[in-house]
Amino acid sequence: MLIAGRYRLQDVVGRGAAGEVWRAFDESLGRPVAVKLLLPQGSDPSAASRFRLEAQTAGRLNHPHVVGVLDFGEHEDRLFLVMELVEGDSLARLAGSGPLPAERVALIAAQAAAGLAAAHRQNIVHRDIKPANLLLDAAGALKLGDFGIARFVDDPGAALTATGQIVGTSLYLAPERALGRPAGPASDVYALGCVLYQLLTGRPPFQADTALAILHQHLDASPVPPRQLGTSLPPAFESYLLGLLNKQPEDRPTADQVADWFDRGAWRGAPEPLPQELPDQGHGPAPSTVRGPRITGPGAAVPGTPVPGIAVPAPSVGGVYVPAAETESKTMVHRPGPHRPSRPFTRRSRLLALLGGLALFFSALLAGMTWFSPDTGTAQVPEAEPSAIVNPSISPSPASNGTAPSPSPTPSLSSSAVQTADEKTTAPADAKKSPKTAGKPRGKSKHRGKGKH
User: Fold this and answer.
1) In this structure, what DSSP letter does residue 304 have?
2) What is the model's pTM?
3) What is the rounded average pLDDT of the residues 77-103?
4) Among residues 39, 54, 286, 289, which is most buried (max CB within 10 A)?
């Protein structure tokens, strides 16, 4: 039979309730094609409308993972659609041979999702994603076909009473569609998740004796995790697959996100590196690719040489955490992890430093009280002045003649207090015998040694 004067039909490759698909040859361009012929229009008027819709929607798509539409017309009161001929098997036959390896299913997932994403960008919802509509060419590339002519998609009531069709459709029907709501892009993603589940495990996520029971499972039941069925699968793949089967459409990823996730190999689930101890100075690991908060602000410098890729505790004063950005060469990078041994270590160090400072202070206080006790008789004590924290990086000025420290200084943890304590405890024992009168030579007295650091 010659259609439209150029497409010569050769043999039937598929039949359905609304029409049949032929292998044909385009005599004008000299290439093989597929021709879908609709049954005579008088038998089902609504089928003609759906057929025209398929031609219009699929004709708007031009994507390597979508079956291309080449021509559309009418021949002897029958509509026909000329499409790209896919020389290969459908996933329906492939799924019947048993579970597939995770790597092959991931490739199928990336290609099928890419084709769906192209349709969704054109505001086209496939509405009948199932293994029979996912075709593989001779090179193994996937092609998404059969747009717009899905049976019983727009009429759930008819679907529940039909035989031979609802079982195949109900196995991949999204929960919102089981409730009679319109199909959306998320419905296609759910159906794709059901197909991937079947390819991995050899069975659909939900099975029952009747189509109605299967629809109830889509609404209320949770799918069994594939690894519990003995499927060898990375945990990341399993978790993402179950996410495609979320009951709420808004909880599922988009087709674009699914395609990107599988295409970049995230399904392999490379484990996150464990946190590491700070290595010796100059022997740190290679810079990490993990981004995180960096330490900035005044007073935020960390003692020691920075080690890229290792989390370093922020200082207690002036440290500010800001969102990650492209950092300079010695920026500290935080790597998330459950174990952080450096934090309790820092608190204990601060406690020890506090106790040591107090011990030195009270030792200095005791030495001062002994030095300036009443039996010395010569020291004049000036009125106590407000204490000030002295920057240890600035050298102290020489002591004034005839003055002495206050006998009861206010407790302080400043660096000057600890410094004074060290000087007093190291003063010569015979310093008490030195003259204390202003203007007289002090010799090797204690006050002369005070200016040394």
Assistant:
1) S
2) 0.57
3) 92
4) 54
CA 353/CA 349 separation, integer angstroms: 6
Give 260's contacts (C-beta < 8 A, 6+ positions apart).
Answer: none
Q: What phi-psi label fits residue 79: left (phi over 0), alpha (psi between -120 and 50 degrees) or beta? A: beta
Query: Cα dist. 221→184, 215, 244 in Å?
Result: 21, 10, 14
Give catalytic residue positions. Answer: 128
| Positive or negative torsion for Cα 433, 436, 439, 443 | positive
How does pLDDT run across 198-251, given as a tens digit for each residue? 999 999 999 999 999 999 999 999 999 999 999 999 999 999 999 999 999 999
Task: Please check whether residue 91 is in contact with residue 195, taking contact to mean a CB–CB distance below 8 angstroms.
Answer: yes
Q: Residue 310 carries which side chain, given as an amino acid letter?
A: I
Residues recorded for the chain: 453
Fold annotation for 2-84: Phosphorylase Kinase; domain 1 (3.30.200)
Residue ranges matching CATH 1.10.510.10 in the chain: 91-267
Domain with CATH 3.30.200.20 in the chain: 2-84
Give mean pLDDT, residues 253-259.
98
Bridge partner list, 3: 7
